[in-house]
Amino acid sequence: MNDDTNKVTQLVEGREITRVHELQYELKIADVMTTDVITISATDSMKQLRELLRSKRISGTPVVKNRKIVGIVSIEDLIKCLANREENASIGEKMTKTVATIYDDEPLVNAVVKLNEYGIGRLPVIERGRSELVGILTKEDIIKGLLKKLEIDYQIREVRPDQEGTLFNNTLDAKMRVQFKYDIPSRDISRAGESASVLKKTLKRLGFHPQIVRRAAIIAYESEINIVLYSHGGQISAQIQPNYIKIKASDTGPGIADVEQAKKPGFSTAPEWVRELGFGAGMGIPNIMKCADKMTLKSEVGIGTVVDTIINVDSGPN
Amino acid sequence: MQIEEIVNKLDLEVRSSAENLRRQISGGYASDLLSDVMANSKKDNIWITLQIHENIVGVASLLELAGIIIVNGREPDETVIKKAAEENIPILLTKLPAFEIVGKLYNLGIRGMG
After folding, report:
1. Fold designation for A178-315
2. pLDDT in tens, A239-292
3. Mutation choice for B interface testing from A190, A236, A288 by most B CBs within 10 A
4. Domain spanning A19-172 has what CATH number?
5. Under a CB-based contact definition with an 8 Å cutoff, are residues A49 and A91 in contact?
6. CB–CB contacts below 8 A, A to B
7. I want to staple A291 with a disulfide (CB 3.0 to 4.6 A). Which of A56, A215, A254, A304 is the partner?
8. What are the percentages of helix, strand and coil residues in chain B, rounded to 5?
9. Which residues pair with B13 in a beta bridge?
10. Confidence of residue A174 (pLDDT cuts 50, 70, 90)
11. How many CB atoms lie within 10 A of CB A162?
């Protein structure tokens, strides 16, 4: 857990996005995958699998029928079979039938996330449309692809297998879906807007559509203003993925007594000094709702308020 | 229309980002409510307001507005001017009230909609 927290903080403190981050969004699966895929048929035996894994020096392989993927089988499945003396069983009986796959036109970051989430070593790559197996992607392919792009002379032999995982985890674990966290102090109106500005720059740099960037910036700005003006302080965080942006604004109180009322345009509890600055017109939360594809507002008096928003990236201008 | 043209024709005082006046104006929006501007102004709009605190720069920068015209002869603080310079946001001053300056901008062909 501690480790996780640190990683998030690292990314937050190093507000700069590294080239490796950007490349994960820029590069497509097709750019880095291995196209020469070794496959096996469901009607082959586990004995044949043993021979294949040994001769090709691989630890698993997709099972295909007419170029379509029907399963995946790994060295672990083989070991189980050997232990139970089932070498003659067919691949079809022993393979894993639900296979995590990825499309060739997806950004690399999606693969990084999937490999980590499922704790798997390889992802078969499917061509969108024809649904045929066109490649395979391992952590090694990803690292090679990134390093090649970074024009670093990569000597595969220099990375021992036991180091490979570490290198992967250090360069690109799942936390590298860009996380963003910003502490917002209470009542410091002069600094309000900073988190929105940093988020906007981040999204722009990652190449999101200007309309998406604008919607995210407005959500962050209005949330930030609310935290500054009405709360004891709080935090804005965002999780950025190629297909969605999640923004969370949370504070430590005092909480909203009537949430439904707070969602109504024009409703405001703003004191005079707030209104004089041009805030407090009761437009903040309605603006957030307008810019988000989904918003949930939870609040408890004496505890605090949490506003969760999602922007679906393919939803375009709202 | 470029900012420079309205500065010259309407005799506006340039307080920041004088080197950035070639920027094209897409239209105009007049409001003193920041959330209203957030919700309804468009990129490269010229924004007419009487607000002079530094959050106007944040709003203009986030929305990529072309510039801010501050009305009624109001003077923003030095910190606001400095922030505007950092963000490349032209701040323009006029002694006229909002109604008058908006009318003049309209006559020059700047529109709020469409």
Report:
1. Heat Shock Protein 90 (3.30.565)
2. 888 788 999 999 998 999 999 999 998 899 888 888 888 888 888 999 999 999
3. A190
4. 3.10.580.10
5. yes
6. 65
7. A215
8. 40, 20, 40
9. B93
10. very low
11. 7
User: A197 vs chain B: nearest CA distance in angstroms?
Assistant: 6
Terminal Cα distance for chain A, rounded:
37
Q: What residues contact A246, with CB distance under 8 A and at least 6 apart?
A: A238, A239, A308, A309, A310
**Domain ranges in chain A with CATH number 3.30.565.10:** 178-315
Whether residues B54 and A222 touch (CB distance < 8 A) is answered with no
Question: Residues of B with CB below 8 A from A190's CB?
Answer: 54-55, 79
Buried b (16+ CB within 10 A) or exposed e, B24-55: ebbbbbbbbbbbbbbbebbebbbbbbbbbbbb
For the stretch A175-227, pLDDT in tens is: 455 677 888 988 888 888 888 988 898 888 777 888 999 999 999 999 999 99
- CB contact set of A54 (below 8 Å; sequence gap of 6+): none
* Nearest-CB residue to B62 (from A210, A221, A281): A221
Name residue, tokens 């691949």.
A91
* Domains along the sequence of chain B with CATH: 3-107 (3.40.1390.20)
Strands (E) across A40-83 are located at 60-65, 68-74
Rounded distance between C-alpha atoms, residue B10 and residue B2, angstroms: 13
| CB contact set of A310 (below 8 Å; sequence gap of 6+) | A244, A245, A246, A247, A292, A293, A294, A295
Amino acid at A275: R
Q: Start-end ranges of CATH 3.10.580.10 in chain A?
A: 19-172
End-to-end CA distance of chain B: 15
Q: Is A254 exposed, middle or buried (0-12, 13-18, 19+ CB in 10 A)?
A: middle
The band of A162, judged by pLDDT with boundaries at 50, 70 and 90, is low
ipTM, two decimals, is 0.85
Would an 8 Å CB–CB cutoff place B39 in contact with chain A? yes
Smallest CA–CA distance, residue A116 to chain B, in Å, is 35
Q: Which of A277, A279, A285, A288 to mutate to test the interface with B (most CBs of B within 10 A)?
A: A277
Is B18 an interface residue toward A (CB < 8 Å)?
no
